[in-house]
Automatic annotation (TrEMBL):
<dbReference type="GO" id="GO:0012507">
    <property type="term" value="C:ER to Golgi transport vesicle membrane"/>
</dbReference>
<dbReference type="InterPro" id="IPR015720">
    <property type="entry name" value="Emp24-like"/>
</dbReference>
<keyword id="KW-0472">Membrane</keyword>
<feature type="transmembrane region" description="Helical">
    <location>
        <begin position="186"/>
        <end position="208"/>
    </location>
</feature>
<dbReference type="GO" id="GO:0030663">
    <property type="term" value="C:COPI-coated vesicle membrane"/>
</dbReference>
<comment type="function">
    <text>Potential role in vesicular protein trafficking, mainly in the early secretory pathway. Appears to play a role in the biosynthesis of secreted cargo including processing and post-translational modifications.</text>
</comment>
<keyword id="KW-0813">Transport</keyword>
<comment type="similarity">
    <text>Belongs to the EMP24/GP25L family.</text>
</comment>
<dbReference type="Pfam" id="PF01105">
    <property type="entry name" value="EMP24_GP25L"/>
</dbReference>
<keyword id="KW-0325">Glycoprotein</keyword>
<keyword id="KW-0653">Protein transport</keyword>
<dbReference type="GO" id="GO:0005789">
    <property type="term" value="C:endoplasmic reticulum membrane"/>
</dbReference>
<dbReference type="InterPro" id="IPR009038">
    <property type="entry name" value="GOLD_dom"/>
</dbReference>
<protein>
    <recommendedName>
        <fullName>Transmembrane emp24 domain-containing protein 7</fullName>
    </recommendedName>
</protein>
<keyword id="KW-0812">Transmembrane</keyword>
<keyword id="KW-0256">Endoplasmic reticulum</keyword>
<dbReference type="GO" id="GO:0033116">
    <property type="term" value="C:endoplasmic reticulum-Golgi intermediate compartment membrane"/>
</dbReference>
Amino acid sequence: MPGPGSAQRWTAAAGRWGCRLLALLLLVPGPGGASEITFELPDNAKQCFYEDITQGTKCTLEFQVITGGHYDVDCRLEDPDGNVLYKEMKKQYDSFTFTASKNGTYKFCFSNEFSTFTHKTVYFDFQVGEDPPLFPSENRVSALTQMESACVSIHEALKSVIDYQTHFRLREAQGRSRAEDLNTRVAYWSVGEALILLVVSIGQVFLLKSFFSDKRTTTTRVGS
């Protein structure tokens, strides 16, 4: 028959495994009001997105150009009546927070119409509303337990980790794009230098050959 010590050890082990299981469940993304999209924006093109928002909802639009040209794009945000809430020209990245003043469909567009040759890769994150609490407060007669408080802290920490990971992935993608572009330019420059060197070498060979070539003169006798 197990003693009190065994029961305490089993209780502690169950608590640790329960917290670990809940932490793993927190890693699984649940239903929320955030939309993260990375898309290609061709040259002379414009791409718009639409979102239905209720009045009083706090929203945040964050975007960044990952690849293409000077890494800039035009952005415009409008309310259901067509009023401009946000407008920026040739921005590499930015963030804008607003509270919806009315119900309806809000529109935000990204434009690359000023670019003639280069297409862009754009990332944006549009957050609508706040995340629901991990442990709803309604129908609760007691405060959060120590395990629930620890899980809430883990949940907030994981959200920060996800934001940092997204930020560094975007930086990594942008850096890789710059490195590939620089490598292409260096390759073209090397090929051009090789061609110029070949042409100069051939020209020098023919020039030196002309210095040592025999110039034969023809003598004509004129009879009396």
